[in-house]
Amino acid sequence: MFSDEIKHYDWDETIRFINSRRARDVEDALTNEHPSVEDFMALISPAAVPYLEDMARLSRDITMRRFGKTISLYIPLYVSNACTNHCVYCGFNHHNPLTRTTLSMEQVKAECEAIRHLGPFENLLIVSGEYPTLNGVDYLEQVLHVARPYFNNLTIEVMPMKARDYERLTHSGLNGVVCFQETYNAARYGVYHPRGMKSIYQWRLDGFDRMGQAGVHKIGMGVLIGLEDWRADVTMMARHLSYLRRNYWRTRYSINFPRMCPAEGGYQPRVVMTDKELAQLTFAFRILDNDVDISYSTRERPEFRANMMKLGVTSMSAGSKTEPGGYVSTPDALEQFHVSDERTPLEVAAEISALGYDPVWKDWDKIFD
Ligand code: SF4
Asked: Which of 8, 41, 98, 206 is the most buried (most CB within 10 A)?
C-alpha cells in the first residue's frame, strides 16, 4: 500500500530538497531521457523559472507525439450534495445549513438527457458528496445503470470504497474513478478534514490501491492547491503516481490540480498558485510522465485554458454545472465551486477547432468493458 511507501518521504525534507535545486539540476532534468521524481522536483522549483520556455516547448512536443492535436471533453453530473464530511474549504460540508439534494433516478435520467442536448458528450463524470446511506454504493450502482445508455464512458468522483465495491460497480459500467487526496501532508490533513470518513487519511490514501486491485480502467488523482505548500504536495503526488504505475501498470491515469476558490462560509486559500506556476507544474508533469492525461476543469479561465491546450493539457470539462439538478433547471442548491469558464460545450469545442485541435467527445466504447 502507498501508505507504507510514503513513510519513507519527509515533508520538510521534500521542501528543502526542492528549494536547493539550482540551474544545473534543471538543465539535467531537461536533458534526461527518463526523468525521475528528483528531476521533477527541479522542474517545479524556483530555479526552473528562467527555463519556462524550454519546458513549454518540451511539454508541447511530448504531448503532440503521445496525444496528437486532441483535447478530450467531459462533463460532470452532480447527483448529490449530501455529505457527512466536514471539509473546511467546501460549501457542501455537513455544517452548512443548505438545502441538500440527492437526485432520484428520474431526475438523473432527465439530467442525462439535458446533457446530451448540450453536446455529443460520451465522457460523463458522476460527482457526489459522501453520505453512505444516501449516495452509497447501491445508489451509485443505480445511477450508473440509468446513465449507461446515454454515455460510453462513466467515471465517478465519490467517497473512497472497498475494492470489492469498486469491482461491483465495474460490472455496472464504471470505467474510471477520480479521487482527490487534497493534501499529502498527514500532519495537517486533520485540520482540513476534522470529522467524517474523510478524516481518516490512510483510508483515502490507500483508496488508489483498492481501485488498482479492483481493476478500475482509469484512475484520476489530484491535490487541492490552496491548502499546503503546493510543491511538496505535487511531489508527493508524483511519487504516488509513480508507485501506482509500478504496481497497477494496466491502468490509465489522469491528474488534475484544482486551484481552490473561496467556498460558501468564506474559507480563504492559505496558498495561492499563479497562472505561471500552474503552467510550470503542468509542463513538469508532462515531462515526468509522458502518458498521463492532464485535465483542466472549468475552474480555470477560458484564455488560460486555451493557452495550455497547446502545451500539455489533454482533457477539459465544459458546460459544467456544479449543483445537483443544474442541467434541467436552475435550482436553489448551492454550487460546489464557482465556474470561471461559463461557455457552452459547443463554444468550447469551436474554440478547440479554431486553434487547430480536434475536440474529442468519445475516446472509449462500451464494447471494451
Ligand atoms: S469536499 Fe467532498 S467530502 Fe468534503 S465536504 Fe465537500 S462534498 Fe463533502
From this structure: 41
What is the CA(88)–ligand 1 centre distance, in A?
A: 9
- Residue of 92, 101, 156, 261 to test ligand 1 pocket, by largest number of atoms within 8 Å of CB: 92
d(CA 131, CA 129): 6
CA dihedral 289→348→145→167, nearest 10 degrees, is 10
**211: CA distance to ligand 1 center in Å?**
20
Match domain 2-17+68-368 to its CATH number in 3.40.50.20, 3.20.20.70, 3.40.718.10, 3.40.50.300.
3.20.20.70
Alpha-carbon distance of 233 to 39, in angstroms, equals 16
Asked if residue 191 lies in contact with residue 78, where contact means CB atoms within 8 angstroms, the answer is no
Read off the C-alpha cell for 222.
Answer: 489530484
90 touches ligand 1 (CB under 6 Å): yes
The pTM is what? Answer: 0.96
Cα separation, 146 vs 217, whole angstroms:
20
Over residues 162-205, the pLDDT tens digits come to: 999 999 999 999 999 999 999 999 999 999 999 999 999 999 99
